[in-house]
């Protein structure tokens, strides 16, 4: 059955979603220059107008054949088409999957989030027959994960070898959105976007992983078993030019001084763009396996993880880890208080804010588990998901966390000081809440 476009058109004062038109050929040509956009959108490469017209005709055919809706995204301030967004029906009946892209130069303004939010809210609150929206995202595609989470999507888990990318099996993360989730979605604030869902960011992450794989293969050769991204680089809470890229290196034997020298020489002057720093841990697979990774919060991007279950935390172990974190928190906060009191200069303030944020995430996760939240879900939640969960227990603290996420990485003395003071206070609030929780148990 043929579908119709929403009437009135979907807009929010910043973007408008309209049918694809021949005048959008220039936009499609720009999109075709990006390998990632061209591949996921099946744009003609090399681009020509005839191929572009056929692509537009296919978008209209989706509606005529009842498969779904696709739109060009119009930026109202400039009157320029800057990307595309769509929604196609999927299995099971009543489910549909959104997709969005914007040209790289328009990234960072919340356009992808606004377009996705408009379309998803319309789909779930009108008579479309859609009860569930679901999206699959590559673990390395952190910008797209952030867009989904800001709109209100909930991560359900990791589907291993579920998709194919250029002929190779690929793990994907599964997200879903129901009508009841819409009220829990974070408010739309363009300035709060730590990064956009632009393909350039995903391409940077992919290139970084390729460079790391090349370097470690060169340095460790046959001793290298697997390279695994974990933590914020996978869970969706990565903040560009602020967060670490967390890397677990699985190898045969101990990582020696000579290994470190060889890896450093192979990496050279590698800048971990779009991350700020590489944080690495090494796992000797010839030793007794101990839990190292959280299910759903890691992605193997080279090699194969041996005896995978032995390296995974279970809910009980996560609870134990959380208790250890909360026990250690008073001492960590004492160190942070002392360091912050003499944090003169921008570079030192920024380093301390980043350090305190690395403490805040596990501390908050541990507290939420103490409050009865499920460990397996909490420990794969990104920053914005954690803030939403915290809102149910301490709305003011969650709002303060959102205010920090809005401006990171901070710049200028005023922002740096405000961020540092807020994070230090949040750590102290978690310590007090944990102490109160333990006294009542």
Helical proportion, percent range: 40-55%
Q: What is the CATH superfamily of the largest domain? A: Gcn5-related N-acetyltransferase (GNAT)
Largest beta-sheet characterization: 8 strands, mixed
Strand order of the largest sheet: 1-2-3-4-5-6-8-7
Number of H- or I-type helical stretches: 14
Question: What is the number of domains?
Answer: 3
Number of strands: 12
Low-confidence stretches: 185-200
Strand content: 15-25%
Shape: globular
Query: What integer is the average pLDDT?
Result: 87
Order of helices and strands: EEHHHEEEHEHEEHEHEHEEHHHHHH
Radius of gyration: 23 Å
Structural class: alpha+beta
Word description of this protein:
The structure is a single chain. The protein is 45% helix and 20% strand. It has 441 residues and is of the alpha+beta class. The protein folds into 3 domains: 188 residues, 3-Layer(aba) Sandwich (Aminopeptidase), CATH 3.40.630; 109 residues, Beta Polymerase, domain 2, CATH 3.30.460; 126 residues, Up-down Bundle (Four Helix Bundle (Hemerythrin (Met), subunit A)), CATH 1.20.120. Strands 1-2-3-4-5-6-8-7 form an 8-stranded mixed sheet, with helices on both faces. A hairpin with a 4-residue loop joins strand 3 and strand 4. Helix 9 crosses helix 14. The radius of gyration is 23 Å and the shape is globular.
